[in-house]
Write a structure and sequence with these properties.
There is one protein chain. The protein is an alpha+beta fold and 370 residues long. The chain is built from 16 helices and 10 strands. The chain has a 4-stranded antiparallel sheet, sandwiched between helices. β8 and β9 (207-208) form a beta hairpin.
Length: 370
């Protein structure tokens, strides 16, 4: 490692990055795969992935002056889930990365601090910083920079850190020495992530079908969750950690259970718009917006099989202002069944004039109370 690379490495680690790698910019050989991926509709509602896709293959199309990329990995913890029966206590699940402040904020601050150190070392140099927010194939560049390998769960994996890291990139016009050795592939014959994904979103060949991924369904998808997938979500209401939790390269969580990973579903269902903004201000969870989160909460309550959830769902079917949420509440009441659920659905069939809610209400009554 030359002196400039060393200074950058020191600055990155000083700001909390545990993985640092370097690579020269080149055109990534992924254009045919990516275009076919888009053509097959795998982006789903993530329209931003289809905008000017050619810029993703070669960052020099963003700025022809760029020559090198610094790839960084910032760690986050995966605390232990509280040792409770979520069906009895009506608890949801939130992905570990969403705990605390939105990582886009604090990792970006730290990556910019590393870029500032680069500018101090080479005044006048150019640096462009990305944290999962621009047209950058960040995992491809992380692999190019030798900080990990592309795992079967499609995350970047590192033998010391697993996959619990946020990735950041600094593109610069400086000619930095590339990391000498590529990172090996250590997934071997392991198939845990593929076999244990509830929706079978992962496939052989290091492939994912995003439209089946629980993270996509609970965060990126803005409309109704496909009916056939709802039971497979379990109690996940924001993201999913299963393919990381089952990976042998990730450390097992320890310490006391973190209640923030398993919030009360009835409490969340009662949040109005102001309550949602107040509770999730500065959090990644706000990305779902209130209607998206409560849609997910309704599904989780229906998946609980707990008749006590009806006491939360039945009033919501009448008073909830968002049709998207009411529609999923109707589905969940149908799954839970019982006299109270049926009465709530019959009242909604007469009262609610939203077509999506009427459709879900009719289906729930016909399927579960015929």
């Amino acid at each position: 490692m030359n002196s400039l690379n060393h200074r950058i490495d020191e600055a990155a680690r000083r700001h909390g990055f545990v993985l640092v790698g370097f690579s020269r910019l080149r055109e990534l050989p992924r254009e045919a795969f990516y275009r076919e991926w888009l053509a097959n509709g795998r982006a789903g509602e993530m329209d931003y992935l289809a905008r000017e896709p050619e810029r993703r293959f070669d960052p020099r199309r963003l700025d022809p002056r760029l020559r090198s990329v610094i790839s960084l990995g910032y760690p986050y913890e995966s605390p232990r889930v509280p040792d409770v029966d979520w069906r009895i206590e009506l608890r949801g699940r939130i992905a570990s990365y969403a705990l605390g402040e939105d990582y886009h904020r604090y990792v970006l601050r730290k990556a910019r601090a590393v870029a500032a150190a680069l500018g101090e070392a080479r005044p006048g140099s150019l640096a462009r910083v990305y944290i999962d927010t621009g047209p950058v194939l960040e995992r491809e560049w992380a692999r190019e920079a030798g900080i990990g390998w592309f795992g079967k769960n499609t995350n970047i994996l590192n033998r010391e850190r697993g996959s619990y890291v946020f990735l950041a990139e600094i593109f610069t016009d400086l000619e930095l020495d590339a990391t000498a050795e590529p990172y090996g592939d250590y997934c071997g014959t392991c198939r845990r992530c593929l076999d244990l994904c509830p929706t079978q979103a992962l496939a052989d060949g290091y492939l994912m079908e995003p439209r089946l991924c629980i993270s996509y369904l609970t965060i990126e998808l803005r409309g109704p969750i496909p009916v056939e997938l709802r039971p497979k979500l379990g109690n996940w209401i924001f993201g999913c950690d299963i393919c990381q939790e089952v990976c042998p390269w990730n450390p097992a969580p320890n310490g006391p259970g973190n209640d923030q990973l398993a919030p009360s579903l009835p409490e969340l269902m009662k949040l109005d718009e102001e309550g949602f903004r107040r509770r999730f201000r500065g959090s990644a969870v706000k990305r779902t917006k209130r209607r998206g989160l409560l849609r997910n909460v309704a599904v989780a309550l229906g998946n609980s099989g707990n008749p006590e959830a009806v006491a939360t769902l039945a009033p919501a079917l009448e008073s909830e202002p968002e049709p998207l949420v009411r529609a999923h509440v109707a589905w969940s009441l149908g799954r839970l069944g019982g006299v109270t659920a049926r009465r709530a659905l019959e009242k909604a069939r007469i009262r609610d004039d939203d077509p999506s809610v009427r459709r879900e209400t009719d289906d729930a009554l016909a399927t579960n109370f015929a």
